[in-house]
């Protein structure tokens, strides 16, 4: 299902939407044939005029590159279709965050080798138990991390040092090898059903952690081989920003973020959870059924998504894809939400309301989906009056922005 959660976390992905490339201009609010006059909509205090954020990222260039790297890391279902339960993904902006996915003793290595940024994604063949954040011991689970370094030499040295530090954590750890990837560095603890691995590839280090139901080292190595094969192919499709150009990355080059309705446009800075533009893998990594989510994105012609302060906009290939995306998101919302009548004056809008199966501490009471041409906006609120104004404002902003 789609997790409709509060706040900016990787599990809020369904809310992501995107704005489009600049098109034909018009007077703000002036209707075109076949469209409503958005000046008649009750948008409250939400700004709905055409707008552009500053493109200067300041010191946040590496953060923007980390957000781009969401497309550099394979989803678990790409490694094996059985790993369909997304466990989320995360930008790793610094060594202190990266060690959430590595041994704690790795932090000095990442600092010394000048980690640029990283990205991690995880999935499993079954959902985590209710209220827990770890897979059960009988699950197959995979975490893939891509770490970016200044150059290939730094990456090669980092991989060797990370493996040495990791294996030294326990005297019971033992090295393993892969016939398919002899340059990879693998280790496990006999009798324990998981394996860790590192592989340097150009300026990247790929880190893997695989859990299986039984401690069979040959089986574990076979899963490492599958994961490396998929991740290397994914990295080869990704175009990293040259190190010298990272500081010059633009915040919102296609004006996607500027088409997301927010209460306050001031003070917005790059943030992986609160102010960011992502591609398809970010949405897939949080899905309870990654294969179904991937099909939805393909069928709707999904291109990219922008997320700002709990609202979002997704861009699809053409106008025919927008209602497909809306219906797919609603279908995957789960049984904690019931259909709710959308504001009648917002064309095509569809809404949901949290029922007694939901958790109001984690989930918004209302969520509405707003299609407009090639775009789908998603807005949330706990207030009936505000959700109606937000829904109208999202429609008006999209109309005024194109």
Quick structural gist:
The protein is of the alpha+beta class and about 400 residues long.
Rg (C-alpha, Å): 22 Å
The percentage of residues in β strands lies in 15-25%
Q: How large is the count of helical segments?
A: 10
Number of strand segments: 14
Global mean pLDDT: 91
The rounded distance between the terminal residues' Cα atoms is 32 Å
Strand order, main sheet: write it out. Answer: 1-2-3-7-6-5-4
Structural class: alpha+beta
Low-confidence stretches: 8-33
**Helicity range:** 25-40%
Shape: globular
Q: Helix-strand pattern, N to C?
A: HHEHHEEHEEEEHEHHEEHEEEEH
Record keyword descriptors for this entry.
seven-stranded antiparallel β-sheet, alpha+beta, 402 residues, single chain, globular
Description:
The chain has a 7-stranded antiparallel beta sheet, with helices on both faces. It has helices at 61-68, 76-79, 95-98, 107-112, 152-167, 217-237, 280-284, 290-300, 321-331, 384-401, and strands at residues 85-92, 117-124, 141-148, 174-176, 185-188, 194-201, 204-211, 275-278, 302-308, 311-316, 337-340, 350-354, 366-372, 375-381. The two termini are 32 Å apart. Helix 8 packs antiparallel against helix 9. By secondary structure, it is an alpha+beta fold.
